[in-house]
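Follow-up to my post from last week.
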Amino acid sequence: MPLPRSKPGMSADTPLSAIFARLIANLGPISVMHYMGEANARYYATRDPLGVAGDFVTAPEISQMFGELIGLWLADVWSRAGRPGAVRYVELGPGRGTLARDALRTAGKAGLIPDVHLVETSGALRDLQSRLVPQARWHDDLASVPEDGPLLLVANEFLDALPVRQLVRAEAGWRERMVGYEDGRFLPVVGDRPMDAAVPEALRDEAPGTIIETCPGAAAVVCEVAARLAAQGGAALFIDYGHARFRTGSTLQAVRRHRKVDPFVAPGEADLTALVDFATLAQVAQNHGARWLGTVEQGLWLRALGIDARAAALARAAPAEAAAVIAARDRLVAPDQMGTLFKIIGLAAPNWPDGAGFV
Ligand code: SAH
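User reply:
Got it. Predicted complex:
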């Protein structure tokens, strides 16, 4: 049977905005979740978004200290678990591979030399990762990561990129928040189908205009990681910006060239993120067999792990770099920078020890 010919102008080179515009013209508005998922898949597949010349800078790109302290944490918990063999380092959404390189270097000095599995969907970023972590094996998702041996899993700024579903309270009841297209522009609109059954009892009577956001993809990932920890042993750290407690409201935002931009302009050309709901994820993890070690602000966690001493040592070793090292330390821990908004949630297998930094 001949393959259907693709429609002219609909190749991978077509701007996503043109594809969305045609889809919406033909079928009506698409959900915010669909919009965000497709936009980020296109965005990450086509570029390296990280660094000063890109759109945003992440903690491992600010300083090697970030990855080093994560490597130390992993080596410490592994050591207190009795130094099991066949242990696997797994990272979700490793970006340029910088965190993996720094963490594995530090862990190796403590005798922890795991095999390395990177979960990454972007071909552009896999190429970069293979330069810094040549020993790695790559996966499209967790399903193909080996099912034996304890997992030491890390994910920095991964969950925030997964698409959120938004529900909005209309006069007549709860509806899904959708994206429409009018006069050449995308804009949020209210869906037709009643969604009241999807809203927890306690929130049903919120005022019109209230938005509730959930991230089914993040819950699914944490569920799978928790079940893996319970079955295989190990520990996991998810680092991201978000709330320690559930709140209402949209947190969807877009960043391009280090500035916030309208998330409904130029889909696929800006990084779309939403704040992570750590309270829900802690619950999901515990419901699926993992131990929740705690959720701690990034600044407190890095201080507990010894970032001040590490910064002082680096500054002494290279006095010309001292000011830059201290500035990087401040950026990672200061409350008005990344120290408070970013949080670390720690999970472990039921029979694994507590981790440092979670009180
Ligand atoms: N952890 C890195 C990069 C964060 S950016 C750092 O801290 O610098 C988000 C990362 O997640 C990118 O590597 C992106 O390609 C990847 N990613 C986004 N959505 C994904 C998905 N659904 N599955 C796998 N990787 C994904």
